[in-house]
Design brief:
Strands 1-2 form a two-stranded antiparallel sheet. 14% of the residues are buried. Helix 3 packs across helix 4. With 118 residues, the protein is mainly α. The chain has five helices and two strands. Helix content is 49%, strand content 10%. The chain has a domain of 80 residues: Arc Repressor Mutant, subunit A, CATH 1.10.10.10. The chain is globular and about 50 Å long. Strand 1 and strand 2 form a beta hairpin. InterPro entries: ArsR-like_HTH, HTH_ArsR_DNA-bd_dom, HTH_Metal-responsive_Reg, WH-like_DNA-bd_sf, WH_DNA-bd_sf.
Length: 118
């Protein structure tokens, strides 16, 4: 059953979905074009099960939708407004202090320096 989520719940779901590097990679791929789990797994060098689990999270968060196509399922960003917002977020350049320590306690030391990502 679909419900109307509070603004805080929406922000929390979006943050959780985008906080995972694998889900972020999947979202970036889906911003370019709709995708299929097997194709995404090949492109991102992940297992199909891993991709399917992340797509389920993104679907449950309302960020992507699944469209059955015969024996396959096509995934795409749920709404054109969301696509525009995600593209704007990706294209926005933020000033970063290269000397600042990463705030993620799970990251190894120096993880976010010199253009590396955790």
């Amino acid at each position: 059953m679909l419900t109307i989520a509070s603004r805080l719940d929406v922000m929390n779901r979006l943050g959780r979905a985008m906080a995972d590097p694998t889900r972020s990679r999947i979202l970036l791929s889906l911003l370019d074009a709709p995708g299929y789990p097997a194709k995404l797994a090949r492109e991102l060098e992940l297992t199909r099960t891993n991709v399917s689990n992340h797509l389920a999270c993104l679907r449950d968060c309302g960020i992507v939708v699944a469209e059955p196509e015969g024996r396959q399922t096509r995934y795409e960003i749920a709404d054109p407004h969301l696509t525009a917002a995600l593209n704007a977020l990706v294209e926005t350049t933020l000033a970063v202090d290269e000397g600042a320590a990463c705030l993620d306690p799970a990251c190894p030391e120096g993880c976010c320096t010199s253009g590396q990502t955790p």
